[in-house]
Amino acid sequence: MQHHPRCLLCDQAPETIRHLLLACPFARQTWHSTFAWLCIPAPVPGHEAKLMDWWLRAKDATPLALCKALQSVALLNPWML
Ligand SMILES: [Zn+2]
Questions:
Q1: Which residues lie at CB < 5 A from ion ligand 1?
Q2: 77 C-alpha vs ligand 1 centroid, how far in Å?
Q3: d(CA 21, ligand 1 centre) in Å
């Protein structure tokens, strides 16, 4: 099975897990659109070294009433990407 060396979503960087989930412009737009649609005030992942770093920051920035929605997005967005 051949593996494309560059990200197929943006063709701007090597396809690493960090790029695909956190740094890819397509992924960042997906996070932003999902948060906007659900009115979740969490920051969009971007410059964190790991998804867990973003998760801890996002959890702190999200009101308790929206934490379950944030948890769902944090699991479903990476799966979709
Ligand atoms: Zn990309």
A1: 7, 9-10, 24
A2: 14
A3: 9
| Angle subtended by helix axes 25-38 and 67-80, to nearest 10 | 150
Inside any domain, residue 5: no
CA 55 to chain centre: 9
pLDDT of the chain, 81 residues: tens digit per residue: 677 889 999 999 999 988 998 899 999 999 999 999 999 999 998 888 888 899 999 999 999 999 999 999 999 999 998
On whether residue 9 sits in a domain, the answer given is no
Which residue segment(s) compose the domain that 42 sits in?
17-80
